[in-house]
Specification:
- There is one protein chain.
- The protein is α+β, with helices and mostly antiparallel strands and about 625 residues long.
- It is about 30% helix and about 25% strand.
- It is built from 18 helices and 24 strands.
- The protein has an eight-stranded mixed sheet, with helices on both faces.
- The longest helix is centred in the N-terminal third of the chain and has 23 residues.
- It starts with 19 loop residues before the first strand and ends in an 8-residue tail after the last helix.
């Protein structure tokens, strides 16, 4: 028999009845039933119930084992007594009577966290003792899911004729939207390598090298501030690039890969088969975000004309300024003062003075009495008898200020009725779009409008290449500087703020899953694009010399994208925090509590690198 096991803890069933077996694993829990000891023995594959009665020659040894001890047992497989089978586990019809035991690894002291049960622990504890945290069933399932997703992605890419290549980890610093992690060079004192933010330049160089279809599951390193859907140090992405393609070719290539993975691992949720293409401008208007959650059907609309010159002075005065507008967030079924007040409080927490609202309800007896010049009691009688139709009325401070005609025009534009509401934000869109987007999400959630049983995808396209600093007027890149401008060189001769790029993101359920572009492969266009942002040709050659030089030698048109592996798995695992699907993540302060990183270098290490640490005051 094997030194440690003849079967895993998920293998045994009634077909093994009467067999002598050997199992190895961790003690999930111990139960003492009147002198008979029951142990749930767990390994990576499952759980088997083993029991030890006083007749066992190793009963005294079994009595000493505790939770999370690693043990090996030999025993006899028997059927469980009638009525005691456990249908929840594959081994639920049998149990193993222990006849021999070996302790392979004991727990010294108290466990900092329990593997058995669903008790919550502080994230600091979970990350410090990640090897224990990873023993828990949910975490095991998440990491197996991640492995299976990566395997599926690879197969799908191979099936489309892509070749997998690995690009360097130690490379040159390249400004790609985040801070680099710098690596000092021992052989070249005072100089630094960088960990790649992405294989951006290398994959483009592969296209220049004649490799038609490239991909890899690439590690990427960015010194970023952490958030729930982003790792502060490193992450993995499906990175791909193709030659002789247009934007739609990239879409047609990646869509079956993403769709297939979500159908395979999405737990039966609906997966959108048609992916809408939405311009960046429209996404900001309709959803307040370039990564909209389309499970929520609410679309915001511009309603400025209904407030211009109105009795609501706040919006009326705002609209007299250049570049301002008023937007409405429809809220079907949200027509109650309680809900409207709650959303107004949300806006105040976000730093706004508030959020105006109108809601529509059945006309009250008070309103009928006022219209007809009768008492409320008389109005109630007329409504009850049907002599007067109740109809609908608009309520809320905004409705009173702008009057019935404007209020009715808003209702008709938004397609709302009795029991519905609308919320309003005004000013320069950049100042309120993000808050409006969050308000839209909350409204969809609280009113039950968001379809939780769906993966909703949309391509966000037509990103602007440049942005202008409102204070200094300086023009800089708003998005990927390597994107080909729509219209090529001619587009760069006009107003930079009108230049759009062949750049695109894929949004799913409120997260950005994919980002990519058709690349700028012509040096003269690249130099002009960087010149507009204030970078001279010499600076471009210095920063991107390898790529610029390569483009002098017959570079093909090419493009591609990258899909975030961590976010894909997070969505499939239905987790809210990306650290739940990463084996050994950093905490929110970019610290590895388990390995004590970052750590102080030794004096010898610093001397060898020619470095000195200057204390921060």
């Amino acid at each position: 028999m094997h030194a440690y096991r003849s079967h895993t803890c998920a293998d045994l069933n009634l077909a093994n009845k009467g067999d002598t077996v050997r199992l190895a694993g961790w003690v999930h829990r111990v139960r003492d039933h009147g002198g008979v000891l029951f142990i749930d023995l767990r390994d990576h594959y499952g759980i088997t119930q083993v029991l030890c009665d006083p007749d066992s020659p190793v009963f005294a040894q079994v009595e000493k084992v505790r939770s999370e001890w690693c043990i090996r047992i030999d025993g006899l497989v028997k059927a469980r007594a009638e009525g005691l089978a456990n249908a929840k586990i594959p081994t639920g019809e049998i149990e193993v009577y222990v006849r021999d035991i070996e302790v392979l690894g004991r727990v010294n002291g108290d466990l900092p966290l329990q593997v058995f049960g669903d008790q919550e622990y502080p994230e600091e504890t979970r990350l410090r003792y990640r090897y224990l945290d990873l023993r828990r069933e949910k975490m095991q399932n998440n990491m197996v899911l991640r492995s299976d997703v990566v395997s599926s992605i690879r197969k799908r890419m191979w099936d489309q004729g892509f070749k997998e290549f690995q690009t360097p980890i130690i490379t040159a610093s390249s400004p790609e939207g985040a801070r680099d992690f710098l690596v000092p060079s021992r052989l070249h004192p005072g100089k630094f390598y960088a960990l790649p933010q992405a294989p951006q330049q290398f994959k483009q160089l592969l296209m220049v090298s004649g490799f038609d279809k490239y991909f890899q599951i690439a590690p990427c390193f960015r010194d970023e501030d952490p958030r729930a859907d982003r790792s502060p140090t490193d992450f993995y992405q499906l990175d791909l690039e193709m030659s002789f393609v247009e934007q739609q070719d990239v879409f047609d290539t990646i869509q079956p890969v993403i769709t297939g993975v979500f159908e395979e691992f999405g737990g039966g949720k609906k997966v959108d088969q048609t992916w809408e293409q939405i311009s960046y401008k429209d996404a900001a208007l309709w959803y307040g975000s370039d990564k909209p959650d389309l499970r929520n059907p609410i679309k915001m609309q511009v309603v400025s004309e209904h407030f211009a010159g109105s009795g609501f002075a706040i919006f009326a005065k705002l609209l007299e300024q250049d570049g301002t507008e008023v937007r409405a967030i429809p809220a079907p079924t949200g027509g109650s003062r309680k809900f409207c007040d709650r959303m107004n409080a949300f806006a105040q927490k976000e730093g706004l003075p508030g959020m105006g609202y109108i809601f529509w309800r059945e006309k009250t007896a008070d309103a009928v009495a006022q219209e007809m010049g009768i008492t409320v009691k008389e109005a109630q009688a007329k409504l009850k008898s049907g002599e007067v139709e109740g109809g609908m009325e608009a309520a809320g401070p905004l409705a009173k200020n702008i009057g019935p005609e404007r209020t009715e025009a808003i209702r008709q534009q938004l397609g709302l009725g009795v029991g519905d509401a609308a919320f309003f934000l005004g000013g320069k869109p950049k100042a309120f779009e993000a808050i409006a987007g969050r308000a839209r999400n909350i409204i969809g959630e609280e009113l039950g409008l968001t379809d939780k049983d769906r993966f909703a995808f949309a391509w966000i396209v037509d990103f602007p290449i440049y942005e202008k600093d409102a204070e200094t007027g300086k023009i800089d890149f708003e998005h990927n500087p390597f994107s080909m401008p729509q219209g090529g060189m001619d587009a760069l001769m006009g107003d930079p703020m009108d230049v759009l790029g062949f750049q695109y993101d894929l949004a799913c359920n409120g997260y950005e899953l994919v980002s990519g572009a058709i690349r700028n492969h012509k040096p003269e266009i690249m130099f002009k694009a960087f010149e507009i942002a204030g970078y001279g040709e010499e600076e471009v050659r210095k920063r991107f010399g390898g790529m610029v030089n390569a483009f002098q030698y017959g570079a093909p048109p090419h493009g591609g994208c990258a899909a975030g592996i961590d976010r894909i798995v997070m969505l499939l695992a239905e987790e809210q925090n990306i650290r739940e699907v990463i084996l050994f993540p950093m905490n929110q302060r970019a610290e590895d509590l388990m390995m004590n990183a970052p750590s102080d270098p030794t004096s010898d290490q610093l001397m060898e690198l020619g470095l000195r640490v200057i204390p921060q005051e």
